[in-house]
């Protein structure tokens, strides 16, 4: 792709020295353009698709066809051998799920082999859940195939130089393969499990898997769909998120592949599962699931089967350097699973690094800034341990937290942090927070219905939305709450809390949650994560119950000062199996406070962030050069002037001989001169293209004037002038963060100003704007009119002495417009003033005390509104008898009666004195109630600007 650079023509001749400077800058710009155009291109990638027949099973002799694609860099050959990557997909996906990642690896010089795992897509066989005898042995045979490829670098005969990368299902495969085959040189398992039994049957009070609480939501998607549920948690680029991908796993036998290369074998149809309700799952896996789904608990045989597919039992055999990447938004495989893998691998003395990111099965890839960080860490790891290039990555622990929105693309932004040593989910230190609340009786509903909502499996972004609306059923949960936090707490790890419980049956299944409650009472459940526990041996009375420590899910969350922490203990959750029999438990707080783990770290940039700053720096250098040229051409140096013009010291705004001319010669404002004094509401009027918006942009420092001066309370207005803090403005529309409430947006805006919160006057600004309780709702639920009112409230923060508003009634309905009229009139008190630009002339007439009419860049009228309206040749007359009055007036010479309206007469006097007209009516015995001029501001406006009101858009 070529890059074009457009150089604007310079219309005026410049002195030789200035030409030289301009020429130098142009040369720099051309150099940048050429450099961009000739930058190194991504290398071409060759692909080979094939159905490979491999032999696995307990005896290593059972054939199965695997649908594969081999990606090769353009320059890979028998003379130029390259390292390899075995790239595994997530559960329900296929080789196509990881295509983008495969291409990127290949572009970086790796030979990449992708395949569709047995039981999925066009591959044969049954699903054995990453069994060492089946899926893992399949992968070993793929290593054999890589070793035989002439383009792949080898360490010895039959030993390819290879790294293994995969997410979720593929991540566990990477760990299990590295434990079973020493030929693996480095692995990057992502969002995967340590113990599959604990993942599907968790107990956060430390119970065994056979007593764990069945995770029916996720298990049902995996097993109940017969293996046909798609997910793509596979790569580091676009496939970490759990998204439906790939062909249905229940597809028929693979057809011959016309593009198959050497090594492809005959097709083998998928075997039939023992139970049709489990599709292509192996019979033992299907049977285990059906037993768990029916009883809600696991027997030892089912736990043993899940352990067979778990890295937990084989971590001591892994010697390959390992980068563990785990998602913070993951109700399937939470951060504790990566923590267990990290602790097990560290005992081997091999390089191990842990990275947490903001995505996961419930959060997708997370923001681009975070997926870029994961990409950088993955490539850095493989480049060193597989390619043999670059310095050792080290074992720093990195994590991230959502920081806000990207100003460039409006997407979420995550900030990454690092610390030298991995502290585990226990953190480096713990902050204790006391909880209060009485003992409470809570009901367990029959069959767990109705159930509380925490997260929705496979819902991705929808699960994230549940943070703010996670629901607990009344009567089925107990609450324990802290006092407002005196200072913010940055939680990085797994909090712990102590509870006591009593049950008539001696057993209870409970779900413990930690909410963040803001000062307005809005509660957020971080990432929808909860801690299920099954307690046994309970007494009937809670006073006799022993405290139980519950380890809550590890999270990364900043709990702000003034927020409260709420621990909820519920009896049901839609994602888990609850006891079928109804019951009533009693729950109380334990004897230990809520403990919050914290980790101190330094902010880190991702590779993309580094490049962005380099690009920003380059653009900034170009801009600086252009600014210097402009400054030399115009010989104008604007210096900060702290002096006060005595004539305007008490005047909120004085605009003097303002001119704005653009580079193409267009003059938007040629000579604008007016004042806004205390107590005034001044309307800035003019047709489209008259220069209203340009005047406001200059006033707010959004563009620089060609000539003229602006004074605010006597201070000459220049960019960065401290006097700007005395101006509140709404120019060019509002911009808010949709996931925050209106009040949270206002607080964020005010914090950005760096001024004390006590100076904001939130309550007064909100009262003037009239937002009511809607200020506590999230912005994404606001109508356009509500956003406009919030923007005006934002402009009013700090109660600035001068308020500048561009079309403040845009998007408001008539009642809201009427209220806005009262808002502006109320605001212009106590020495404050308002400048408002509007095209609604009737509103300006009713709202403003003064008006400034601009036409073709010049002021054509200014002063009090009534003076601009002036005298009228016609009047409105309210009379007691309109018909008789019309007859009387029709007899007067020169007087013309216009059509009546609502009992009023519109009379064109044509020079006849109004007093004579009224006297004539009175002599005829007709009562006259009111006589008012007929002329309106609109009439005066049209008389001043004429046909120019039909011009094009303002500039």
From TrEMBL:
A Pfam family annotated for this UniProt entry: ABC_tran
Species, as recorded: Micromonospora avicenniae
Residue stretches of biased makeup (Low complexity): 236-250
UniProtKB keywords: ATP-binding, Hydrolase, Membrane, Nucleotide-binding, Transmembrane, Transmembrane helix, Transport
Family: Belongs to the ABC transporter superfamily.
Domain ABC transporter: 653-881
Record field: transmembrane: 20-38, 610-633
Classification lineage: Bacteria, Bacillati, Actinomycetota, Actinomycetes, Micromonosporales
Name of this chain's protein: ABC-2 type transport system ATP-binding protein
Positions of the UniProt region annotated as Disordered: 235-274
Molecular-function GO term, any one: dipeptidyl-peptidase activity
């Amino acid at each position: 792709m070529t890059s074009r650079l457009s150089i604007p023509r310079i219309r005026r001749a410049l002195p030789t020295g200035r030409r030289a400077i301009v020429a130098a800058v142009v040369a720099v710009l051309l150099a940048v353009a050429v450099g961009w155009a000739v930058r190194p291109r991504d290398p071409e990638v060759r692909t080979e698709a094939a159905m490979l027949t491999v032999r696995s099973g307990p005896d290593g002799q059972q054939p199965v066809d695997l649908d594969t694609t081999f990606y090769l860099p353009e320059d890979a050959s028998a003379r130029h051998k390259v390292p390899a990557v075995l790239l595994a997909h997530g559960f329900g996906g296929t080789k196509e799920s990881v295509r983008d990642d495969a291409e990127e690896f290949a572009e970086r010089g790796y030979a990449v082999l992708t395949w569709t795992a047995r039981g999925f897509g066009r591959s044969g066989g049954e699903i054995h859940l990453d069994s060492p005898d089946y899926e893992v042995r399949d992968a070993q045979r793929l290593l054999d195939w890589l070793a035989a490829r002439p383009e792949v670098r080898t360490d010895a005969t039959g030993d390819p130089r290879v790294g293994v990368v995969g997410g979720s299902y593929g991540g566990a495969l990477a760990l299990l393969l590295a434990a079973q085959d020493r030929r693996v040189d480095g692995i990057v398992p992502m969002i995967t499990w340590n113990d599959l039994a604990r993942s599907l049957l968790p107990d956060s009070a430390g119970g065994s898997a056979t007593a764990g609480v069945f995770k029916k939501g996720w298990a049902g998607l995996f097993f109940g769909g017969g293996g046909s549920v798609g997910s793509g948690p596979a790569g580091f680029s676009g496939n970490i998120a759990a998204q439906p991908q790939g062909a249905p796993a229940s597809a028929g036998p693979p057809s011959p592949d016309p593009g198959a290369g050497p090594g492809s074998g005959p097709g083998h149809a998928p075997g039939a599962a023992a139970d049709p309700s489990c599709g292509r799952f192996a019979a033992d896996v299907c049977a285990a699931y059906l037993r768990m789904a029916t009883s809600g608990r696991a027997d030892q045989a089912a736990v043993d089967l899940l352990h067979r597919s778990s890295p937990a039992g084989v971590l001591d055999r892994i010697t390959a350097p390992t980068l563990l990447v785990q998602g913070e938004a993951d109700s399937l495989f939470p951060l504790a699973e990566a923590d267990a893998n990290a602790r097990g691998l560290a005992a081997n003395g091999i390089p191990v690094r842990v990275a947490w990111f903001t995505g996961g099965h419930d959060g997708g890839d997370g923001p681009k800034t975070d997926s870029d960080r994961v990409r950088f860490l993955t490539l850095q790891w493989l480049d060193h341990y597989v390619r043999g290039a670059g310095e050792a990555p080290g074992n720093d622990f990195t994590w991230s937290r959502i920081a806000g929105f990207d100003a460039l693309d409006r997407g979420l932004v995550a900030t990454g942090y690092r610390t030298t040593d991995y502290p585990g989910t226990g953190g480096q230190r713990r902050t204790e927070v006391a909880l209060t609340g009485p003992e409470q009786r809570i009901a367990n509903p029959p069959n767990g219905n109705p159930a509380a909502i925490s997260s929705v499996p496979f819902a991705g972004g929808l699960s994230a939305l549940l943070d703010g609306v996670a629901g607990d059923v009344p009567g089925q949960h107990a609450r324990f709450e802290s006092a407002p936090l005196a200072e913010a707490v940055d939680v990085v790890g797994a909090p712990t809390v102590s509870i006591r419980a009593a049950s008539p049956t001696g057993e209870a299944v409970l779900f413990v949650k930690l909410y963040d409650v803001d000062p307005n009472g809005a509660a957020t459940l971080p990432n929808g994560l909860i801690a299920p526990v099954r307690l046994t041996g309970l007494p009937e009375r809670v006073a006799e119950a022993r405290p139980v420590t519950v380890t809550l899910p590890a999270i990364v969350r900043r709990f702000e000062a003034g927020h409260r922490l709420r621990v909820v203990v519920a009896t049901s959750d839609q994602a888990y199996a609850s006891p079928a029999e109804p019951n009533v438990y009693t729950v109380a707080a334990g004897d230990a406070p809520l403990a919050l783990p914290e980790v101190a770290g330094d902010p880190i940039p991702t590779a993309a962030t580094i490049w962005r700053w380099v690009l920003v720096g380059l653009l900034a250098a170009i801009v600086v050069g252009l600014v210097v040229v402009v400054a030399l051409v115009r010989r104008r140096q604007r210096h900060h002037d702290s002096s006060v013009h005595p004539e305007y010291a008490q005047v909120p705004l004085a605009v003097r001989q303002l001119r704005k001319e653009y580079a193409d010669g267009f003059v938007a404002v040629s000579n604008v001169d007016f004042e806004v004094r205390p107590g005034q509401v001044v309307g800035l009027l003019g047709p489209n293209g008259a220069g209203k918006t340009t005047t406001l942009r200059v006033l707010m420092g959004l563009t620089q004037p060609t000539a003229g001066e602006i004074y605010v309370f006597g201070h000459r207005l220049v960019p960065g002038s401290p006097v700007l803090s005395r101006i509140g403005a709404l120019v060019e529309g509002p911009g808010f963060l949709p996931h925050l409430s209106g009040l949270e947006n206002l607080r964020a805006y005010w914090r950005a100003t760096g001024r004390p919160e006590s100076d904001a006057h939130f309550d007064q600004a909100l009262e003037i704007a009239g937002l009511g309780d809607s200020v506590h709702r999230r912005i994404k639920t606001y109508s356009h009119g509500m956003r406009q009112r919030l923007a005006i409230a934002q402009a009013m923060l700090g109660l600035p002495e001068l308020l500048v508003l561009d079309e403040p009634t845009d998007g408001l309905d008539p009642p809201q417009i009427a209220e806005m009229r009262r808002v502006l009139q109320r605001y212009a008190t106590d020495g404050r003033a308002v400048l408002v630009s509007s095209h609604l002339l009737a509103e300006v007439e009713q709202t403003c005390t003064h008006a400034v009419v601009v036409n073709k860049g010049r002021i054509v009228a200014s002063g009090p509104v009534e003076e601009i309206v002036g005298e009228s040749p016609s009047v409105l007359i309210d009379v007691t008898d309109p018909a008789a009055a019309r007859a009387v007036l029709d007899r007067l010479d020169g007087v013309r009666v216009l059509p009546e309206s609502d009992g009023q007469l519109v009379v064109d006097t044509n020079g006849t004195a109004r007093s004579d007209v009224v006297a004539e009516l009175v002599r005829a015995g007709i009562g006259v109630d009111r006589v008012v001029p007929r002329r309106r501001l609109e009439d005066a406006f049209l008389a001043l600007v004429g046909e120019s009101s039909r011009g094009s858009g303002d500039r």
